[in-house]
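SAMPLE LOG
Freezer: B-3
Tube label: C17
Construct: single chain, 371 aa
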Amino acid sequence: MDSVIGQIVSMGYDQELAQKCFNATKSTDLNTNIEWIEKHLEQEAIKESLKGTEEGQQQQHQEQKPAEEKPNEESKENNAEGEQQKWGPISHLVDPLMVAQLQDMGFSKNVSEKAIFMTQDQKTLEAALAWTEKHQGDADYEEQLLMQITDETNKPKLSEAEARQKARELQNKLREERKKREAQEELDKEKRRIMSGKSMGDAQREIQELKKRQEALQLKQQREQDAIDKQRMLEQLQRDREERFGKKFAGSKPTEQQAKEPTPFEKFQVGIKQVKTAHPRNIFLDKAQVCLKTIQIYIQNIVNNPTEEKFRKINLENKAYQTRVGECFGAKETLLYLGFVEEGTFLANHNPNFEILKQALTFLDKEISTS
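STRUCTURE (predicted):
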């Protein structure tokens, strides 16, 4: 409760109004409380409350001020300096562990903190991800969200118009900073393009070679399966022949191909290494690491919440999945090796093998630390 009232007061509203707002909404969601204030601010009862508060402050100020006292220029300058320092980050108002998880998935610190702050009434990673997907097209998506910091012992009471003016000034300032940042990002992007241009051809050839090797491996596996099917057919013919002539059928030993069939976990290990090979850091920066960390989060959610069905499904149309996993060569197959099956626009794991999933988490920790 105190944190919500403090946030409302930090935006320039009166303490009494903030308390009255919270008593009416009983909600910890900042947006809900602000909507209530905007809707009821013009009602007579609140007007009288604000008016009484302002008159009381003016009367107290006049009693304390000597008649002969004149404005002090130095004091005005100090107040101006203090006014410039009233905006601060929201880092202390959000869960640092959830912020770290979103940053591991590739989101910036500003976006991570903003997504968690705007969905703090739900307090789940899924809600924060849904917020990023909904607002990623906003012009101020990457801007840092700031809150007004006031001195509780001597804070000015802002009217509604003043509070809105402060918000507009801050928004304009953030937009200017965003333009500068975007210009710098374009410059950095061009530098990276020039630096990686020479080795891009080699990387593409390596990816093509990797695809050829994977196709050759699939062809080899198909031939081995054909050999197994052929062996089974011969055995069936042998059984039929021996049953017809009354001879005992001793059976056959497993073929060499059957003995060498890799386990699902071994296929998962190969798939993860293929993801890292196909996306070298000198060309794709941290794309492979972000992919592996996202897969790790999918698995960790299932292991930590074994009875929650919602953690066993992955939306293939989700923007976060598409950019962090779907675009990576071989990444989707690694999930299939762990028991996920494709059902329309979802990957689902209805009967997870928790032993294999825990092995996968240990393996991912090692691969992420060495990438």
